Amino acid sequence: MIPAKMASILTVTILSVVGIWSSSQAAHAQGLAYVANFGSNNVSVIDTSSNIVIATVMVGSQPQGIAVTPDGASVYVANCGGDIFVIDTATNKVSTKFPAGACPTGVVITPDGTRAYVTLTNANSVAAIDTSTNTVMTKIPVGPAPSGIAITPDGTHVYVPSVGMSSSSVSVIDTSSNSVAATVTLGDVGSVGIAITPDGTRAYVANALGSVSVIDTASNTVADTITVANVADSPVGIAITPDGTRAYVVTYGFGGMGPTVAIDTSTNTISAMVSVGTGPTGVGISPDGTRAYVTIATNVTGIGNGAVSVIDTSSNTVVDTVPVGSTPFGIVITSRSSAPPPPPSISSGGIVPATVQPGQWVSIYGSNLAGSTTSWTGNFPTSLAGTSVTIDGKLAYLSYVSPGQINLQIPNDSKTGAVPVAVTTGGGTGSSSVTLAQFGPTFFLLDGPMHVAGIILRSDGSGAYGGGSYDILGPTGNSLGYATVAAKPGDVVELYGSGFGPTNPKVLAGQTFSGAASTTNPVTLHINSVSVTPAFAGLSGAGLYQINLTVPSGLGTGEVPLQGTVGGVETPVAVFSLQ
Predict the structure, then answer these.
(1) Which residue of 45, 165, 345, 493 has the fewest C-beta atoms within 10 A of its own C-beta?
(2) Measuring CA to CA, how many Å separate 144 from each of 149, 411, 521?
(3) Domain architecture of the chain: domains with CATH
């Protein structure tokens, strides 16, 4: 594996060929938060750039659930009084209202915006609504007293928790037939809120009796149960960050003073507990993932004005409190503009490298490739910040997305030749193509099209990094902005790259790997036109090839050309520093 200092340099520079480790920092995006105030029968509209209420919209009796259409043009408000109100986000005025049934409480919109699904708590059912006509298409029976509701990112299934009398359950609705396809029994836990991870693989259910159930959506079985520590009762609301790394769970315990709990979804353990105020009920995450907005009643009676506590998700601290209407429940946050985002576009020659192999790290350059800048946590997601990529129709594994660049690992595929590439966001799909081959070798670089990324091992402890264990290969001195050393005969060097072909054992894409998997085809190096046979060439990490060699004499000095060859395919020319 790459040593620590080299990894930190890779983070900033050397993957200019594939750019895997780009920054995850993102400015807090401007947007609007819509808050359903159950006690005052209105919706507060918060400008999230200033955290000031800019409008108050009167709606029906006892508004609870709230959702925004994918194009950001409309907000649907479920009122327990029986009606659905639709707010035009361009004017922040009610554009229409229509009856839905007995006590509408939760609402979600399909990704294509054509339908809304609303829980009818007093009718033990879910109403499917045609959003083009704003009429109820059908009502789907589910478990007792449904309230929370969530939809998978692909829109194929709706998950509805039911509190139940003695046993809670989650009904799974197939949206193609508007019928219940599965029921997941959770036990006597009091299931209320629910959220689904951005990759659609897990549903997190907030149980009012002190736990969070994690459902595997592939099998619709309970994969894990998380005890919410020190909270005797009432996790109620839940939301998941756009990158899928954290779930924020609102708890009402301790006489209404329950904290908001942050759960690390990679381990399903609690990573933070944030005090947000009295009477918390709902939570929403900003589109860029930098803020969590928690609705609070401000007192246990629910009488008087409520508020929204704003959590900075990087520090898990409350950074602002925004007064709103009485007893706020549901909250949804959308971008400032009501116009749909522009479609993604891949630049000409914007897939680098242009010939790739399964498991190889690749960069895509273009415009509107993502709505925000987000990095993975090493979990091989197939969706980040609402962006997904397919290669030959197969979902790629994303490590980084931004408006101008995507870094990904090519999925497993036996096909060779030109295959389609599709980048999909909320604005549409951008298309291009790439060539799949058995080999697509390239070296990682320290500074653009120049010095190969590598280290010189120092068994005598004289290195500048790793407690003396290694130096970074490069021109002797600090010309690259950090200390590097040119290699000399006898030095043991490790070089890093990608695309050097099949290995033994075989290492599949989309999985962590640590060890040594040798290439099945020999790798030959040409340093200053002299052939050098490496001592080892193979994978040492996911998609990361390591090539070990001892520098022979007779290679010359200075900045000399380096090329690698495997399976008859040559790498682009890099620079190898010699003294």
Answers:
(1) 165
(2) 14, 42, 61
(3) 38-335 (2.130.10.10), 345-436 (2.60.40.10), 446-578 (2.60.40)
